[in-house]
Amino acid sequence: MTFPTTSLYALPLILIFLILFFRVSARRTDLKASIGDAGDTVLHERIRQHGNFIEWVPFGLILLALAEASGANSIALHCAGGLLVLGRILHPLGLKAGNPAHPLRIAGNSLNLLSFVILGVLIAMARLGL
Known about the structure:
Mean pLDDT: 96
Largest sheet: none
CATH class: Mainly Alpha
Low-confidence stretches: none
Structural class: mainly alpha
Distance between the termini: 22 Å
Shape: elongated
Number of helices: 4
CATH superfamily: Membrane associated eicosanoid/glutathione metabolism-like domain
Strand content: under 5%
């Protein structure tokens, strides 16, 4: 089985992953810090931005693939995939050590949660035959 919709949204997520990864790597190189954050707030923020991406995206892609495999509505799949990508773009921009209530952080997480709710509903509907 192919997953054209899931694959479509995996592509920008791969790019975001790489950007976040290289930002951490570049800062580590500048600080000569192999492990941890070396007490550097910028590196700490970048590690958490990348880490948060890793915590959310694999599960989101699994849910998207499960919904797609279940025959979910294409428009709903695109809405959920788009929300996941947009949330993953916004969240690291707002994940700042000095501002836990940054609007972009809240927006990013909210869009990710909404994506997950949509995908959960789609999967449940498919399992219930609705």
